[in-house]
Design brief:
This protein has helices at about 5-10, 45-60, 75-85, 100-110, 135-155, 175-185, 205-220, 230-240, 260-265, 275-290, 320-325, 335, 340-345, and strands at about 30-35, 65-70, 90-95, 115-120, 130-135, 160-165, 190-200, 220-225, 270-275, 300-305, 305-310, 315. It has about 350 residues and is α/β, with parallel strands linked by helices. The longest helix is centred in the middle third of the chain and has 18 residues, at about 135-155.
Amino acid sequence: MNKHMKKLLGASALIPILMSGTAAIAGPSGTVAFLMPDQGSTRYEQHDFPGFKAEMKKLAPDCKVIYQNAVADASQQQQQFNSVISQGAKVIVIDPVDSTAAASLVQLAHSKGVKVIAYDRPIPSTPADYYVSFDNEDCGRAIAQSLIQHLKETGVSPDKGGVLEVNGSPVDAGAGLIKKGIHEGLEGSGYKTLAEFDTPEWAPPKAQQWVSGQITRFGAKIVGVVAANDGTGGGAIAALKAAGVNPVPPVTGNDSTIAAVQLIIAGDQYNTILKPSEIVAAAAAKVAVGFLNGESPKAETKLFNTPSQLFKPTLVTVENLKAEVVDSGFVSAKDLSTGRYVEGCKRLGITK
């Protein structure tokens, strides 16, 4: 476990799960499913599932854990959901491809006595049994406010132009929360939103294609891009570079993927959000084990009528990148210091 995770897990304010009944969790047996939405981000295979699996092994070594990824296909996720129920899953942790369509999955599970934990993305219309996530609205607000502050500090006048807003999937309620936070972060800033786009499936190529069109439309009036995650941010940067825009205006992100952190080191991306997915995954595992033990997890808050646990994210720019991302152990210097990023890593004191 890296230092950043230890710090978060050690903060009692961020771990409000208190199981009723016994003080300690026994090691139950049973089957738990962990259903993730897509492979557009590397986080699910690299962070979320490994974190969930490790915590389940620690808390309930006799449990069977089934992992599936729906590759951005809501129909495939429905099939996977049905399959894990037929395989005897008593608790399903799901990051839904389509938050609206997932309501019927919750209803199906409840009709069979199966508990559902909404993960990262809420299911608004039909409450799951629990919701675990970083605070998505706070993520959106933070990246937008950070961008606006940077524009002001670097003397970019609102009269020069405005920003593009590249949101996440239109069927992802979590993306909707990030979008809401972005709007709050931009409101009253003086910088207008030239245009905004909800990116189908969070797909970076679709974000890139849309931004390319906006470059043709607005040109030098684009003073910044608020992108909802690192994939869409990377797509925006690729479009700007392909159009010969130099320097690239500041672009935001979210997830602290290796590619995005490298882009920040190179000066191509302005910020991202550090939210170690293992933290949320471990919390989901604790709730799942509690359900297997017949306990009821308590929560400090509710979202969409669902008991919820929301973790606070960390904004990352080049100023705190080394301390928050590398020194914490979230990403290794070896992974970052490659190819054209070697010199930038040296400037920041990031060495293998």
